[in-house]
Amino acid sequence: MRRASAVLVPIAFLFSVTSATAKSDFLEKILLTYKISDSGSLAERSCGICHVSDSDYGMNSYGKQLAVAMAEADETSLTAAIMKKIEAMDADGDGFTNAEELRADKAPGDSKDKPAGTPKPPPAAGDAKPPASGSGSGAKPPATGTTKPPTGKTEPATTEGGGEGQPQPGAEEAAPPTSEPTEQAEEEPVEEPEPPKRLIPKNGFHPAVVHFPIALFIAGLLLDLWGLLTKKHELLWAGWYNLVLAALSAVIGVVTGYLAMIYMKIPFKGVITEHFLFAVTGAFVMWMMVSMRVHRHEDMHVFQRLVYWLLAVIGLILISWAGHLGGVFVYGE
User: Fold this and answer.
1) 155: which residues sit within 8 A by CB, 6+ positions away?
2) 308 has a pLDDT exceeding 50
3) Which carries the bigger pLDDT value, residue 278 or residue 267?
4) Crossing angle of helices 211-230/270-293, nearest 10°?
């Protein structure tokens, strides 16, 4: 009973610390919002839409505009409304707006990747004209001073006392046009595109799995250390089970990470390469520790235990750095 409780307590704790997940799929949001094909140029560019390149995950000019818009909206995930706010901007300064480039399957953060043709010049500040009151396009609005615009209509008759009489028929046609109701000027809510339902998501369940080996491995080391200091065999057994579960979940984490790379078309370059290699090496170290300890547990010799704990430190460094690189990929530096 004591051994079972020693195993169940850290596992229960584990479920409480592994609920964190990574960001939503920004690429899928952009492709859905602008109806971009999965075989298009932007889909192939993948993370390079918002990042400097597929190996440098610093934000490019378009990514920085999105980050500012998300901060202003107090959002941690990308929405269609946020993308709408920066559509009229020109992130890369090539003359085309962000919306024009995205709809043409071009990267809004890369000035060398732009639609064919000449961009439309932005309207000058003095070019705007007020709405015409007559049929001619150059008609001016009625003046507010003493001079009255020629209307071609009979002026209203006045009485001897100076008051106005009844206006002549047709006089009301000279009134200036009324403006549109203010309600029509309000922006309509942006409809969020619904992502297609998949049996296996594009992230391959990697965000849900990847935290298990980290938490299990750390919990196992702490239980081992506690068991050695207190000489309690139950804690050593609990540490052993946590180590085995950590090694198993590490393999699952590597597999799901590889699936995510394929489904999301993430190039095997830069920080992703480092993240993957550190994770694979960390999983290999865990299995070395399992092989050293199987059938031995607390009966390891002094030299074996020193090698075991040296591997534990190396494994802890490897999975910690792999986790850091994963955070850099998802959230940026």
Assistant:
1) 168, 171
2) yes
3) 278
4) 40
Residue 216: inside a domain: yes
If asked whether residues 62 and 194 sit together in one domain, one would say yes
Give the separation between CA 20 and CA 29, rounded to whole angstroms: 21
Hey, which residues does 59 pair with through a beta bridge? 51
**Residue 214 CB coordination number (10 Å):** 22
Neighbours of 246 (CB within 10 A): 29
The pLDDT, as a whole number, for residue 184 is 47
Give this prediction's pTM. Answer: 0.57
Instruction: Please give the tally of structural domains in the chain.
Output: 2
In a shared domain, residues 193 and 48: yes
How much is the pLDDT for 212? 95
Tell me whether residue 227 is in a domain.
Answer: yes
pLDDT tens, position by position, 199-232: 777 778 888 899 999 999 999 999 999 988 998 8
CA distances for 190 relative to 77, 83, 158, 183, angstroms: 15, 10, 55, 16
- Terminus-to-terminus CA distance in the chain, angstroms? 47
Q: Let me know whether 111 and 230 are in one domain.
A: no
Q: What is the mean pLDDT of the chain?
A: 76
Q: What is the pLDDT of residue 23?
A: 44
In a domain, 220, yes or no: yes
Adjacent-strand bridge partners of 164: 158
Q: Please indicate, yes or no, if residue 136 is contained in any of the structural domains.
A: no
**Residue range of the domain that includes 194:** 23-116+189-198
At 16, the amino acid letter reads S
Torsion of CA 249, 250, 253, 255, to 10 degrees: -100
Report which of residues 47 and 333 the model is more confident about.
Answer: 47
Residue ending a domain, choose from 198, 230, 258:
198
Mean pLDDT of 177-206: 62
Q: For residue 254, which of 324, 319, 313, 327 has the smallest C-alpha distance?
A: 319
**62 and 12 both lie in a single domain:** no
